[in-house]
Amino acid sequence: MKVAIVDDEALERRALCKMISDHLPDIEVVAEGANGREAVEIAKRYRPDIMLIDIKMPGLDGLQAIEAIRQDGLDLEFIIVSAFDLFDYAKQAMRFGVKEYLLKPSRKEEVISALERVSQEVAAKRRHEESSRQLEEQIRRLQTLVESEWLSVLMTEDVSADEWERWKELLPFSIASGMFLVIQFPDAGVADEWKSWLDKQLSGKAPTRYWIGRMANRRLPVLFFRSPNDGEPAWKPVIQALALDLARQFSARYGAALYIGLGSPFSRLDQLRSSYYEALSAAHYYADRQKAQVGFLPAEATRAGGEAERDKQLFEALRLGDIEQARMICLTYIEELASSHSLPAAGRKAEETFVWLGRLLSELGIRYERLASFTSCRSAAELKRAALDELDRIAADLEVWRQQQAYGKLGKAKDYIDRHYAEPLTLEEVAEQAGISPYYFSKLFKEQFGITFIDYVTNVRIERAKEALAETDQSLKEICFSVGYNDPNYFSRVFKKQTGLSPSEYRKKVQAR
Asked: Which residues carry this modification: 4-aspartylphosphate (predicted)?
């Protein structure tokens, strides 16, 4: 703890220094001054935690110095040591937030006690500030995670209207309408470099708000959106012009081509996923043909609503491990393609389906690189075999993923809860321990164990409380705190809801056996 002493009497300063050095080893006198102007300079230069200061000094007096220091926004506490016991001085000192007012000649015990009280207050204030800073940083990191996770959910998850409303409450912005574009970058290069380049370009040129997603398989999604209070942009021409400019700038700087697919604009949040899929298909379409670099998906290549629904059903069957259902959907689809399209066209449409599947897999953290080239198949039978082989590879990767989630990461989460149930656990904290994003952790936990995270924590705590009630003579209040609850009344309500008995009733029942 750093202290400064300002008094026009050198003898008084020496006396205070000796008191501090003899009795307060944790406090260091960092500077001394003889008047108010020196007090202001000391505060600026040394940034002491506490200043002992006299009132009547030549030039700028003590109260004027305190006022000047406060106006400079410097954060320190003051203890006045003065021979003047006047109410006006005391009232003005209170207005400046002075912590103690000691009268000269000050007894050693009074000075030491005052310094101890104020230093304890300063230390408590510093701890609170550090705690607040850490909390703000945690909230900032959590907000970033929520925003990033939200875009992945928007692109890949079938979310109910109620869930969308809950997501909206967590986001620092609202969306009235928007559209996606998907950028396919060249083979060479570093993903972080491409993303940084794009963000720099958009920060100065984007005609509306935007959010950049995660890079996967050299493809980067970008959502452009407007809030309810923003003006309505002419979405298609404005974003298409921006995409063309991005392609030109990239080519000029890196000497390589970008392929940018655009999705249709939508005014409903739950429809924006369709815009993403359109943009993804368009990026693949133009990159595959290399005839143009930017555009919407041409009418002849647009996937019908039934095809999009089939893709969704196919992925859901794979994700749930129903490989037979997935194979049946895939075979039916390939047969329909072969009967209504030329073989090369059927191969291209099959490839579009597996591009979509690859993107969905990447959102789960699964790296997937397609081995088969469907457009090189020489017969419908060969196309079927190639598609089923790829499907089996995806199913195997998903099975490994499910096992890892179910028995690895989620098991680790349960172990963590079992060890730390007495602490104020949060879903975000446990998800971080398991290495899973909070959204997917909550969803996977419920799917694997048939119970929500909160309910599981509650069950563990109540089971530990039951053991303590049966096997110890601890008070109900002690047991309440030992299992992670801060309010005995709330603990009793939860316990009764879980067991049908109050804690005291439960103890009587088990001890009567």
From this structure: 54
Stretch 143-157: mean pLDDT: 60
Strand partners, 225: 178, 209
CATH number attached to the domain at 2-127? 3.40.50.2300
Beta-bridge mates of residue 6: 33, 53
Q: Which CATH number fits domain 455-512: 3.40.50.1010, 1.10.260.40, 3.10.20.30, 1.10.10.60?
A: 1.10.10.60
Cis peptide before 237 (omega within 30 of 0): no
Beta bridge partners of 502: none
Chain centre distance of CA 241 = 33
Amino acid at 162: D
Pick the more confident residue, 164 or 369: 369
**Rounded Cα–Cα distance for residues 354 and 318 (Å):** 12
Q: Are strands 177-184 and 219-226 parallel, antiparallel or unpaired?
A: antiparallel
CA distance 439 to 148: 11
pTM of the model: 0.40
Number of Cβ within a 10 Å radius of residue 51: 27
Q: Is the pLDDT of residue 143 over 60?
A: no
Q: Is the pLDDT of residue 183 over 60?
A: yes
Greatest mean pLDDT range, 91-105, 187-201, 421-435: 421-435
**Roughly what angle, to the nearest 10 degrees, separates helices 108-156 and 161-170?**
140
